Amino acid sequence: MNRSVQQLQYALQTLALPVTAQLRLHARDGCRVEELALAFDRWQAKARGEMQEDLTGEQVEVLNRLDKKLLLLSGSRFKPAWSDAALRQSAEWRQVRAMAREALAKFGWPLDVPPVAHG
């Protein structure tokens, strides 16, 4: 597995984890919630470019849905969604975690805790 694909796997695993594990994987400084989305955005774009011919329609579709959900959350009217409290409590972040678990399943990747120093 090349680096971009592995980093996409790690980003999806992090997005799929329970909240406490998500917060433990990211530094206390900066916006931890934003880091989750940025890692996915960065690596899904690179991995898609490298895997373009190997991706199934289902894989593309689940990545598109997750990307769209995160883009909707990033709109200015959703700024409260980018807090640790929102990550813990909001329905939007529960949906993101479910979508990430679905994506892992579509790729045949396990729901494991990725290495801390990824991204």
Task: Fill in the keyword field for this structure.
single chain; 119 residues; mainly alpha; 6 helices; 68% helix
Explain the layout of strands and helices.
Layout: H1 3-16, H2 19-25, H3 32-51, H4 57-73, H5 84-89, H6 91-107
Helix pairs in contact: 1-3, 1-6, 3-4, 4-6
Summed up, the domain count is: 1
Major beta sheet summary = none
Low-confidence regions: none
The rough form would be described as: globular
Q: Counting H and I runs of at least 4 residues, what is the number of helices?
A: 6
- Secondary-structure-derived class: mainly alpha
Q: Beta fraction of the residues?
A: under 5%
C-alpha Rg (nearest Å): 13 Å
Average pLDDT, rounded to a whole number, is 87
What does this entry show, briefly?
This protein has 119 residues and is mainly alpha-helical.
3D architecture notes:
This protein has helices at 3-16, 19-25, 32-51, 57-73, 84-89, 91-107. It starts with a helix and ends in a 12-residue tail after the last helix. It has one domain. The protein has 6 helices and no strands. The model has no long low-confidence stretch (mean pLDDT 87). By secondary structure, the protein is mainly alpha-helical. The longest helix is centred in the middle third of the chain and has 20 residues, at 32-51. Helix 1 packs antiparallel against helix 3 and helix 3 packs antiparallel against helix 4 (57-73).
